[in-house]
Amino acid sequence: MLNQARLSLKLVLSSSLVLILLLILPALIIVVKALQPGLLPALLSPVVTEALRLSLLTTSISLTISLIMGTPTAYLLARYTFPGKRLVDTLIDLPLVLPPTVAGLALLLTFGRRGVIGSYLAEAGISIAFTTVAVIMAQVFVAAPLFIRSMKAGFSHLDVRLEGVALSLGASRWRTFWQISLPLTLPQLIEGTVLCWARALGEFGATIVFAGSLQGRTQTMPLAIYSALEQNLSAALSLSALLTLVAFILLYSFRSFLSTDSA
Questions:
Q1: Do residues 260 and 90 make contact, with C-beta atoms less than 8 angstroms apart?
Q2: Spatial CA neighbour of 176 closest among 191, 189, 160
């Protein structure tokens, strides 16, 4: 029995080590490869700076939209029952499982110049596809469900008696939400914000189909990496390392916050 236990432990450790190396090693290699003498000039190149500027701009806007519109949506799904709720809940989660190119095609068929809604917008002189607005819409489409899911979990586990006490003391529902409900779901709010922003920052497939890859207009960091792979490997490595470090810092900071909060 002792030998079997040791063998099982060795198998568990071996398989865990292989998986950990598979998950960690590629990210480390990207960062190490990017740490070369030409790193700073590559980061200051127009391709990188424009892609970085556009990514920061679009993800900031898409995150703001997700927070403003996603928070009441999550509260509605968590706290109320209505006909078709399960269908709505499923449709909101659908972008999470759709292939990114399918998501981009769906947006194009809906808001493109010949799309179901886009054709009417085109008649009014409004064009969305292959513009910066299309980048933001693609990011919201694929990233907002992550925020909604996180906030929905937070609101679902919230003790409704606390809200009831506040209401009984004369607080309005709006004040109760801002001073009771939202602060108590702060960990889920931060988690949803981090996941939503990180997903928007790394969005590629839906963006390239719906918005294209136009430098300075729709070419975000992931698209710039893809374009630079054939022409400027240093720029591609620099952008990849930057994205990797940003993702690591965000996730590590969030986990540190949770550890401090639970302590």
A1: no
A2: 160
Could you say which of 1.10.3720.10, 3.30.1360.70, 3.40.50.1110, 1.10.260.40 is the CATH number of the domain covering 52-262? 1.10.3720.10
Q: How confident is the model at residue 237 (pLDDT cuts 50, 70, 90)?
A: confident
Asked whether the beta carbons of 108 and 165 are under 8 A apart, the reply is no
Please give the span between the terminal C-alpha atoms of the chain, in angstroms, as a whole number: 39
Give the pTM: 0.85
Residue 219 and residue 227: Cα distance in Å, rounded?
9
CB 18 within 8 A of CB 214: no
By C-alpha distance, which of 55, 60, 11 is closest to 218?
55
Residue tagged 């519109």 (tokens): 69
Q: Is residue 202 classed as helix, strand or coil in its secondary structure?
A: coil
- Helix locations, the chain, DSSP H: 2-34, 39-43, 46-79, 85-97, 100-111, 118-123, 132-156, 160-168, 173-176, 182-184, 186-201, 205-210, 221-228, 233-262
Structure tokens at 30: 């990207």
